[in-house]
Write a structure and sequence with these properties.
Elements (H helix, E strand, L loop, with lengths): L8 H14 L5 E9 L7 E10 L2 E8 L14
Antiparallel strand pairs: 1-2, 2-3
């Protein structure tokens, strides 16, 4: 009964950073398209990228398209 987020960018950007960090190459431009949420009927495709230089991951990025699912507001006193 717990609904899953069909696209978890924070988890996937961490994953691409990990994969780049354990790759044997000291310099690497790593890119991966990640498919998530298909089984729940809400398919999502994210592009995750990492740049590794001198054996260290320097940059990670995540991106994709999105649509509005809900909207809300909080009114503070």
């Amino acid at each position: 009964g717990v609904y899953e987020d069909p696209a978890t960018g924070s988890a996937n950007v961490a994953l691409v950073g990990l994969l780049a960090s354990i790759a044997p190459q000291p310099d690497l431009d790593f890119s991966q398209v990640i498919r998530q949420g298909v089984d729940m009927g809400r398919p999502s495709f994210l592009t995750a990228e990492a740049e590794k230089r001198g054996g260290e991951v320097e940059t990670t990025r995540i991106g994709g398209d999105c649509v509005w699912m809900s909207r809300g507001a909080i009114k503070l006193p």
